[in-house]
Amino acid sequence: ETGVTQSPTHLIKTRGQQVTLRCSSQSGHNTVSWYQQALGQGPQFIFQYYREEENGRGNFPPRFSGLQFPNYSSELNVNALELDDSALYLCASSPGGQETQYFGPGTRLLVL
Amino acid sequence: GENVEQHPSTLSVQEGDSAVIKCTYSDSASNYFPWYKQELGKRPQLIIDIRSNVGEKKDQRIAVTLNKTAKHFSLHITETQPEDSAVYFCAATDNSGTYKYIFGTGTRLKVLA
User: Fold this and answer.
1) CB A111 within 8 A of CB A11
2) A88 - beta bridge partners?
3) Confidence at B29, pLDDT banded by 50, 70, 90
């Protein structure tokens, strides 16, 4: 069984640019959640995808958007990057209807 | 809004001693409470969880207790070892269908050999 994977591991962007982060869910999991973890803080919920539809969103602006594909992998897109977007972005997958989420290793984004 | 408070922010214990981390949640609809361990540069790993219909759960040296009335839950680690050193996060969620996690701010545990 393959765990949750994310790519890339690290990324450096400049203010105003756009970024796409990718997540492959654990085998058999149809739900993917995305979190932003600033340095020294707990992860904050961005949104969740279930069977290719957004299924809940946290307090993040519309420039944070996502997709889920038929194979349940997912993308997080961030437009018009700001310095405060620098963080570790974690995705977590879970089987539909179950609470337990399994996290990927994260993508560390630095915005200069 | 929904909130989870976690204390202490740092905790140092001698090897072999016990460690206790406490969390308080605000949403009375929360009914699932996982605990994650995050080592430096690594992914959060689930170490134990508890559902609201249970008051206590134990797995070897790790236990979690839940007081629904007071909206408190705690992580207990006994016989601590140096490899227990990490940042621990509590979280709360509900069964609204989203299962979004509200995380605490984390506790950095140092086990001194």
Assistant:
1) no
2) A37, A108
3) confident
Q: Which of B88, B94, B38 is nearest to B62 (CA)?
A: B88
Q: Which two tokens stand for residue A12?
A: 């450096």
- Residue in chain A closest to B89 (alpha carbons) equals A42
Query: Cα B66 from chain centroid?
Result: 11
State the smallest CA–CA distance between residue B7 and chain A in angstroms. 13
Both tokens of residue B81? 């070892």
Q: Which residues from chain A sit within 8 angstroms of residue B4, using beta carbons?
A: 42
Judge: B46–A41 Cβ closer than 8 Å, yes or no: no
What are B23's two structure tokens? 């969390």
- Region of residue A85 (left: phi > 0; alpha: psi -120 to 50; beta: else): alpha
The sign of the CA dihedral A94, A9, A106, B88 is positive
> Is some CB atom of chain B closer than 8 A to the CB atom of A48?
yes
Task: List per-residue pLDDT tens for chain A, 112 residues long.
Answer: 569 999 999 999 999 999 999 999 998 899 999 999 999 899 999 999 998 999 889 999 999 999 999 999 999 999 999 999 999 999 999 987 788 999 999 999 999 9
In Å, the largest CA–CA distance within chain A is 39
Q: Using an 8 Å CB-CB cutoff, list chain B residues near A94.
A: 99
Does the CA dihedral B2-B8-B10-B13 come out positive or negative? negative
